[in-house]
Amino acid sequence: MAKKQSPDRKDTTISIPKTLKANIRLYAKPLKDGKRYESDAMILDRIVAEYMKNNPPTNAVPKSTYKQKSP
Predict the structure, then answer these.
(1) What tens digit of pLDDT does each residue of 13-56 get?
(2) Is the pLDDT of residue 2 over 70?
(3) Structural domains of the chain, count
């Protein structure tokens, strides 16, 4: 069962298949120092920004992944 996240936490872990991660890494651009490449988070940020530019959300309320307890 997933733990409740701390409200101070800014990052989260996502689980993706290794094949998808390998495909995402194909889009990594070199960083300014020329020795390293973008992190997975930077790549996903660019992909999501481009997707949202072309497909604006119809409802701006985020959807939960998990069931919520009824009050």
Answers:
(1) 888 899 999 999 999 999 999 899 999 999 999 999 999 899 88
(2) no
(3) 1
Distance of CA 43 to the CA centre of its chain: 9
Q: What is the DSSP string of 11-39?
A: -------HHHHHHHHTTPPBPTTSS-B--
Task: Tell the burial category of 70 from Cβ atoms under 10 Å away from its Cβ (0-12, 13-18, 19+).
Answer: exposed
Q: What 3-state class would DSSP assign to 8?
A: coil
Whether the CB-CB separation of 25 and 43 falls below 8 Å is answered with yes
Q: What is the residue range of 39's domain? A: 30-55
